[in-house]
Write a structure and sequence with these properties.
alpha/beta; Rossmann fold; 24 strands; rod-shaped
Length: about 575
């Protein structure tokens, strides 16, 4: 019993958390904000403090049945209701159902008189009434600078801030207090972060004319939390955060194989294609057919009835659909069926991390089996190569955990190293295909070979890569005395090879006819010898027959002579005629 009591007390002392319902934020905070304690959300103007705070209240009311109070010191309640209506938040409806209370407290600097007796007692009474009226579990104070805008005495500030945070704890509400960023401190006064149990910093920066929003958990008393900077997105669906740290390398590894859309390429990949959930990179210079190969892959996925998400950073959807028709691929049919979804944006539309968040949201929304990114090299326009590599590594890890097959194209620089990518992710991918131009005899033709494909037997040969009216065709290249032959050189050499084969065939046929003629002559000679042998045999048999007849005639004559002479019976016997017997005579 004593042991169970100790365990119960241990459970009671664990830090409880209030889930925010904001996608990604609960993940990096380990479950949400500290329940029954204040959290400081600080940052510069326009970074999203008010939005995060309001969404915390709305999702708490709708998803967790926890009413909330939003006390604003800057915006009126009706203005807040209008602003958040664009995000689908009906604040008036929540207020009518006692799920939310909006309270605007007007503070005029000219009305604030700095005295030693200045305190927030009136605010506490007003806030306490609002909490009790709806049984609020969540509270937002936006922003605290407006409340102390007329005070410069640090001692008064410190004392009243402590009183405010203590009041919120005593009420048992999970609170968010927003604050403006100071010049050298997280907040303008630099005091709130010390008394808050959790501090979240929002940053909205501009780099090379590209805006990027990031979040960082500065501290979280009594709890493990993510310590990196996390990109977040504000769109028509509200506030969303995405953890950027790479996930552990414990994702599943499927043994299922899926087609590349090019039958002969599947043959080069052990006869079965790529592994499902793997990452594929196709690199090459401009015009080598990277997008065409990506279109084949997307088309094959749609033919299997799978959904494909196509991120394009160079061409519009209509342009891609039109271009692929020239090689016999109709992507528009899959768009109409909802199997193929295009997201076409310039890489400079927003920051790299925002691209990553947007991709995550699209993947979560559409749940594709295949993702195409064409090309990844264009992302360098939004950030450095190192940042792009980091972003892509996180994206690839994320897709692998979802068992989504990633197909990336990469534009390499002409004249540079072939076995090198612009963003250096070749070591991260599972299969790497290289497309290159082969120049010979005044022509530029395409070649394809597989640099690597983990976990499968694959071809080490180069194939000529042909874009035809019926799609991509891979043909064996010809290795001639001068090296690899493609295009018209290969066709000419193949014609010469066919002519040489034909000449050899004719020579063989000619030799065969000569042999057949010799056989006829030999057969005739054999027949003549056999006829001669037969004639000689018949002649010998005739001679033997005549000799036998002569002997018989001679014997018969002798018998007749003996009888005429009255010879003894013995001597007249046919078998004794011509023989000398005992007592006989001739």
């Amino acid at each position: 019993m004593a042991k169970s009591g100790k365990k119960a007390r241990a459970v009671d002392h664990t830090l409880r958390k209030a889930p925010t319902g904001i996608k990604g934020l609960d993940e990096i905070t380990g479950g949400g904000l500290p329940q029954g304690r204040p959290t400081l959300v600080c940052g510069g103007t326009g970074c999203g403090k008010t939005l995060l705070s309001m969404e915390f209240l709305v999702r708490g009311a709708l998803q967790f049945d926890e009413p909330g109070v939003f006390m604003s010191f800057e915006e009126k309640s009706e203005d807040l209701a209008k602003n958040f209506a664009s995000l689908g938040f009906d604040l008036d409806d929540l207020a009518a159902r006692d799920k939310l209370t909006l309270d605007y407290v007007h503070i005029d600097k000219s009305e604030i008189e700095e005295t030693g007796e200045y305190d927030l007692e009136g605010l506490f009474i007003r806030l306490g009434l609002a909490i009790d009226s709806i049984g609020a579990k969540r509270v937002v104070l936006d922003t605290i600078e407006a409340l102390f805008s007329g005070l410069s005495n640090e001692n008064i500030l410190r004392a009243e801030l402590r009183r405010l945070f203590t009041f919120l704890k005593d009420k048992g509400v999970t609170a968010i207090v927003t604050g403006e960023q100071g010049e050298r401190t997280l907040t303008r006064y630099g005091l709130e972060e010390y008394v808050a149990d959790c501090v979240i910093f929002l940053n909205h920066s501009i780099t090379q004319q590209i805006a990027t929003r990031r979040m960082r958990i500065i501290k979280y008393r009594g709890s493990y939390h993510g310590t990196n900077e996390y990109p977040f997105l504000i769109d028509e669906q509200g506030f969303s955060v995405m953890p950027i740290s790479s996930l552990g390398l414990d994702h599943p590894a499927s043994t299922e194989r899926i087609s590349s859309g090019v039958s002969r390429l599947d043959t080069m990949l052990g006869g079965k294609g790529f592994y499902r959930g793997s990452s594929i990179l196709v690199s090459g210079t401009a015009g080598t057919g990277k997008s065409s190969l990506a279109a084949h892959f997307a088309d094959a996925a749609c033919r299997r009835g799978e959904r494909c998400l196509y991120f394009a950073f160079e061409e519009s959807q209509n342009q891609i659909v039109r271009n692929m028709r020239s090689i016999g691929i109709d992507l528009e049919q899959w768009v109409h069926k909802g199997l193929l979804i295009f997201l076409n944006n310039r890489p400079t539309l927003y920051g790299l991390e925002m691209h990553l968040v947007t991709m995550h949201k699209a993947i979560e929304s559409h749940m594709p089996a295949v993702v195409v990114i064409d090309p990844i090299s264009n992302l360098v326009a939004a950030a450095s190569e190192a940042e792009v590599k980091s972003m892509l590594s996180r994206l690839i890890d994320y897709l692998k955990t979802k068992q989504i097959t990633a197909f990336c194209t990469d534009l390499t620089t002409a004249g540079g190293g072939l076995e090198k990518t612009e963003v250096g992710i070749s070591s991260l991918v599972d299969s790497w295909l290289l497309l290159q131009n082969i120049e010979a005899s005044g022509e530029r033709n395409r070649g394809l070979y597989i640099l690597k494909s983990r976990g499968m037997d694959h071809s080490n040969q180069i194939r000529e890569f042909i874009l035809s009216d019926n799609g991509i065709q891979l043909r064996d290249v010809y290795i001639g005395p001068g090296g690899v032959l493609t295009g018209s050189s290969r066709l000419s050499q193949e014609a010469r090879d066919r002519a040489e084969v034909f000449e050899h065939k004719q020579a063989i046929e000619r030799k065969y006819r000569e042999v057949e003629q010799k056989k006829v002559v030999v057969d005739a000679q054999i027949a003549a010898l056999q006829a001669q042998y037969q004639a000689e045999k018949e002649e010998l048999e005739m001679i033997i027959a005549r000799e036998n007849e002569r002997d018989e005639a001679s014997a018969a004559g002798n018998l007749a002579l003996a009888r005429s002479r009255k010879a003894d019976e013995f001597t007249t016997r046919p078998e004794t005629i011509g023989k000398t017997g005992k007592g006989g005579r001739k």
